[in-house]
């Protein structure tokens, strides 16, 4: 092996980069699928610009002999398809990064030239450059060529024999060059495969939310397209026929929210999927849910704001909006999955909580979480869905005053009782009232008692690390796996992580968990530390040390590790 050769033991980080339209996602899909099929663990994340053509889009793929779940800054193998990619990734390229690319398109002093475009032109068009690149990457990584060619044939089968033939030729040319470079020792991987991976699937965060919703009894979904919330909507649409789900793209987010409330009123279990700008239009509908005491499940995929902000980037800036959306006060639940498994788990739970307490339940994700994917095994068992609906008898009162504020919920057509709902203040029958003290105050008190009712079903913060911790990291959402990996790398046995899958209401154990630590540090992806502020408001504990990131990119393992070590 030459002196400048690189050995990757246990794991290799591959980054693909190029402008929109160059097929980066096609390369990613083929390569990640092959890595998993070969028995290696895989994690993929992406960052992309808000444009149809041009700019720089990147995909990170981690190929490992053990499960990997978080984004890292390190790049072992870089495959840039344009020169702008080098400038864009300059702070992640170090002296050990192996860079392969076409020297007519990419300039770098350590570039290993593979003439992607001229090879592709031999088969009729430079559009085959990305297939050449896939072949070269597989050759470099030592992935079985037959598996690659089979995948290529399957991928392009619907486009005709000629397209299959040309892509196969392009892949074989790239694979031969990659294999030659591997034999020459430019890069070598020493990664053991894991036979147990045959039972796992590659799934992204959007698909996990969608599957969790389906297993939670969701039978209709409404949305207006908005990145990054659209992924859940399209996943649900793809499974609509098989899962018997009604899917409707509505004219705007006002209609989206109101249609979902109509579905719940009729006895369905509806979900909406949106992002910050779209949810802003839903706030009146959220207030309507509070007044008519309707369940609602809202998937809110966060991205940088205000306004359009950075529409294809990631952030955790909408907690306050979910917490305070709507006029007046009424109970709600806010869940925030930290990984793909929790995205599945908490999406199921959101339907149970919304239906049981007749309140809005939020599922807060972000662009990073909705787009990442890795190999995992989701639970096979599906708990029976309990619909909290009663048969309305004669004399039924939809808003009957109860000790916990939760009234028996009937739906039209199920029983002989009359079902009445109105956005104005109403009496126990649901009829509009102007009786201020005799009806308004008791009905408001009834709705407010739901705050206490919801607290009977809270999720406790999830602790990772030693029980006798001195320093406690506090965080929520998609930071989970990144922080866990950084903690493991730090080797410090006095640091633990308190991850909050439920942001509101906070579990009653929260204060005790925090007070046990000598030092508290909060990691959040927003400008102010919205969750730390909520903790202070709820418990009186002020977390002054806050590591905040809000440039549109997720934390990396290295960033968190540096913060921990400092």
Tell me what the structure shows.
This protein has 566 residues and is of the alpha/beta class. The chain has three domains: 194 residues, 3-Layer(aba) Sandwich (Pyruvate-ferredoxin Oxidoreductase, domain 3), CATH 3.40.920; 175 residues, Thiamin diphosphate (ThDP)-binding fold, Pyr/PP domains (Rossmann fold); 107 residues, 3-Layer(aba) Sandwich (Rossmann fold). 37% of the residues lie in helices and 20% in strands. The chain contains 21 helices and 22 strands. The strands form four sheets. The protein has an eight-stranded mixed sheet with strand order 7-6-5-2-4-3-16-9. Strands 11-10-12-13-15-14-20 form a seven-stranded mixed sheet, with helices on both faces. The chain has a five-stranded mixed sheet with strand order 17-19-18-21-22, sandwiched between helices. Helix 4 runs parallel beside helix 6, helix 7 packs across helix 8 and helix 18 crosses helix 21. The radius of gyration is 26 Å and the shape is globular.
Task: Give a topology summary.
Blueprint: E1 6-9, E2 11-20, H1 24-37, E3 41-47, E4 54-64, E5 77-80, H2 84-88, E6 98-101, E7 111-113, H3 116-121, H4 129-141, H5 145-156, H6 161-183, E8 187-190, E9 201-204, H7 205-215, E10 220-223, H8 230-238, H9 240-243, E11 246-249, H10 253-265, E12 270-275, H11 276-280, H12 283-292, E13 296-302, H13 319-324, E14 333-335, H14 340-357, E15 360-366, H15 367-371, E16 373-376, H16 436-448, H17 450-454, E17 462-464, E18 471-476, H18 480-490, E19 495-500, E20 502-504, H19 510-515, E21 519-524, H20 530-539, E22 545-548, H21 557-565
Parallel strand pairs: 1-8, 2-5, 5-6, 6-7, 10-11, 10-12, 12-13, 13-15, 14-15, 18-19, 18-21, 21-22
Antiparallel strand pairs: 2-4, 3-4, 3-16, 9-16, 14-20, 17-19
Helix pairs in contact: 1-4, 4-6, 5-6, 7-8, 7-14, 10-12, 18-21
